[in-house]
Amino acid sequence: MRAARVHELGAAPRIDDVEPPEQAEERALLEVDAVALNPLDVAIGGGRFYGGSPPLPYVPGCEAVGRADGGRVYVFGDGLGIARDGALAERAVVAEERLIPIGDDVDATTAVACGIAGIAGYLSVTRRARVGPGDRVLVLGATGVVGFVAVQAARIAGAERVVAAGRNRERLARARHAGADAAVELTDGDLADACGGDGPTVIVDPLWDGPLATALAAAAPGARVVHIGQSAGPEATLSSAVVRGKQIDLLGFSNFGLPIEILREGYLELVGHVTEGRIEIPLETFPLDRVAEAWERQAAGPGEKIVVSLR
Fold it and tell me: Percent of the chain beyond pLDDT 70?
């Protein structure tokens, strides 16, 4: 079978002919239709992931949509593409408990685009931060896929006001079109004024580091911060006076920490919103033969989901 494999850390994967995987007990054989690339895949392939990389050469791909046990499924987890060969191949072996059945009425590229980044943007808002009526939500990094989904999730959750913050004007305009009440450039925007009231009551943070410190200075007393990622840096210096004085609640969020039933429920909710047109996830699709191009596009931070189609 054909598979994309990373042969050297820091280099894009290339197509190889490899032996198909063998099905084992309590594992399903997945006929892969589409794989979404993520910053996580590039970090693992570049040797920058804190959990290390599988032995070289290895097949990347942490999530996929395909067919298993006679139906279409989404799969993520069980070490796929992290501790062992992943899904960027015509077939992969996955734990049966990680299979999430989806209907055939959703095309594979859309279904896989709702995965890792979409789940993070959606569940961090609806479950972890519990956004609701009366909340003023500031979404940092709203120019990326996670932030873009978070903007739309906050609107669906009934937030009083949603503010998108980022550095790319074109993508900020996209966030406004998708439901943000205001868009602010992180470099010079007044976050408190944009959020109204006495500042945001919820901050969605895929960035960490300096942008979060700036946002906390603008936050309302008792604000909730849901922290998703570290695109701006792995460490942050936060003012003790601000955190204590405003009694800030700092909430961590990770897809890897979700029980499978919550992951399944949230993913299927998001797919429903996308198919009904309530949430948009911009995507760009590449065939498997152009996987190196897709990989480089993901590494450049495209602001949309990069999907590799295998069928």
Answer: 99
Place of tokens 């701006």: 232
Question: 97: buried, middle or exposed (CB in 10 Å: 19+, 13-18, 0-12)?
Answer: exposed
pLDDT tens sequence across 192-212 = 899 998 999 999 999 999 999
Looking at this protein, which amino acid is placed at residue 149?
Answer: V
- pLDDT score for 188: 60
Identify the residue whose tokens are 């499924």: 73
116-123 and 145-156 helices, crossing angle to 10°:
40
How many residues are listed for the chain in this entry? 311
Angle at CA of residue 167, ends 161 and 169, nearest 5°: 80
Residues 308, 35: contact at Cβ < 8 Å? yes
Q: Catalogue the E-assigned strands of 233-282.
A: 249-252
**Non-local CB neighbours of 290 within 8 Å, separated by 6+ positions:** none
Higher local confidence (pLDDT), 229 or 137: 137
pTM: 0.94
